[in-house]
Structure formats: structure tokens, C-alpha cells
Design brief:
Elements (H helix, E strand, L loop, with lengths): L5 H5 L2 E3 L5 H18 L3 E5 L6 H10 L5 E6 L6 E6 L2
Parallel strand pairs: 1-2
Antiparallel strand pairs: 2-4, 3-4
Length: 87
Amino acid sequence: MKMGSPFLNVLPSLDIHGHTRETMYVVVSDFINDNIKLGNSKIVIIHGIGLKVLSNELKLRFNHDKRVKNIYLSPDNSGCSILELNI
């Protein structure tokens, strides 16, 4: 995460580096549930840039999830996605 991005630094974040497509779904889903319970409307998922495997899988699996209002790459750091949650 860029140090110069205060917006990303204040949001709850989860780093999924090293996860597979399958394990990524479980940890992100649990993180979404926890943040909905806490009343957080936005979270950051740090997936890195690389070959875009994790970022593509994140969009594929959560783009139509009823808990997620919107998902998009951070304008400040393409290695992070912001998820707006339905709370």
C-alpha cells in the first residue's frame, strides 16, 4: 500500500498475498462478514499487481455478492481493491 494514500491507510484492510483462489475466497468472505458486523462501509483488499490472478478472482467471486455494493481498483494503488459493503 502506498504510504502517501491516507484514504487507504484508514480503511480496514486484508492482505491476501500468498493465498490461492480457493483460500482467498474464504478469508475475504470472513473479512466482509466481520466488517459488516462492525458497521464498516468500505474495506481494502491488498492483492498485489503481479499477473492479476487474485484481483480478477476477487472481482469474479464478489462482483455479484449481495454483501458487496461495489468493487473497484484503488485509484492510488492498483495492487489494492476497495469493496463498498452493504451495511
